[in-house]
Amino acid sequence: MTKLYLIPCPLGPDSLETLPDMVGTQIRELEVFIVERAKTARHFIKAMEPRLPISELEIFELDKHDSQAAHQAFQAAFKTGKDIGVLSEAGCPGVADPGALVVKYAHQKGMQVVPLVGPSSILLALMASGLNGQNFAFRGYLPAKRPELANALKRLEATAKKQGQTQLFIEAPYRNRGVLEAAFQQLAPNTHFCIAADLTLPTEYIKTQTIKEWKKAELPNLHKRPAIFLIG
Same domain, yes or no, for 226 and 135? Predict the structure, then answer.
């Protein structure tokens, strides 16, 4: 039976060591890949020293904005009759990632889906936050515009308090500062807020405080740094 391997990628360019040996072993055996971005995927695969030259591998790029194009990429890879590897830009395929589309098609075809162990910023941030890990929800990106962002933050805070459910969300790195400003303006003083940035990198930063404490603290410079935020 053809297998679909879900291959995690490092969360940063200098953290290959965060991947288990089994990930590299599997990459070296695969000849067909469906990837989020071909250029970075080739760079990563080459770093793992594949058995075949990069030029001989079949790499299909996944269009995350077009489900029909994504289906066509899967069909083309499936027709090779070979095992397929799915690569995200960073983290785990299918988790906050368009690779979920490919996994859906694989189940429809009766393929065996094999998830490999690797870093996920969502789980790493939750683990290190000290907030509730028994009940949590990942909310993806919040609205970019300030009025909608303010309302979204208030809703997440209300859910966290009512249900005891940790709320996780992300933002484009260049908008991190705006998120912090909105959070400190809208959230209650006793609400816990965690900032987790550059996870697994030498510059990793993780800290949880109440909003009241954050307002007194020196804030980290998050400009263009991948970060995830938690409300609890």
Answer: yes
Residue 231: predicted pLDDT: 98
Domain boundary residue among 53, 80, 115?
115
Starting from the edge strand earliest in sequence, which strands make up the sheet with 136-141, in order? Answer: 136-141, 166-170, 227-231, 192-197, 205-210
- The CATH number linked to 148 is 3.30.950.10
Q: Are the CB atoms for 27 and 9 separated by under 8 Å?
A: no
C-alpha 223/C-alpha 165 separation (Å) is: 28
CB 231 within 8 A of CB 191: yes
What pLDDT digit, counting tens, does each position of 46-72 carry? 999 999 999 999 999 987 777 787 788
Chain CA centroid to CA 114, Å: 18
Query: Do 83 and 164 fall within a single domain?
Result: no
Any residues with CB less than 8 A from the CB of 95 and at least 6 apart, and which?
A: 120, 122
> Per the structure, how many domains does the chain have?
2
With bands split at pLDDT 50, 70 and 90, how would you rate the model's confidence at 33? very high
122-181 per-position pLDDT tens digit = 999 999 999 999 999 999 999 999 899 999 999 999 999 999 999 999 999 999 999 999
Alpha helix (H) residue ranges in the chain: 21-29, 38-47, 67-78, 99-108, 121-129, 146-163, 176-186, 211-216
Three-state SS at 34: strand
Residue-number span of the structural domain to which 186 is assigned:
121-231
Q: Are residues 92 and 36 in the same domain?
A: yes
Domain final position from 84, 115, 146: 115
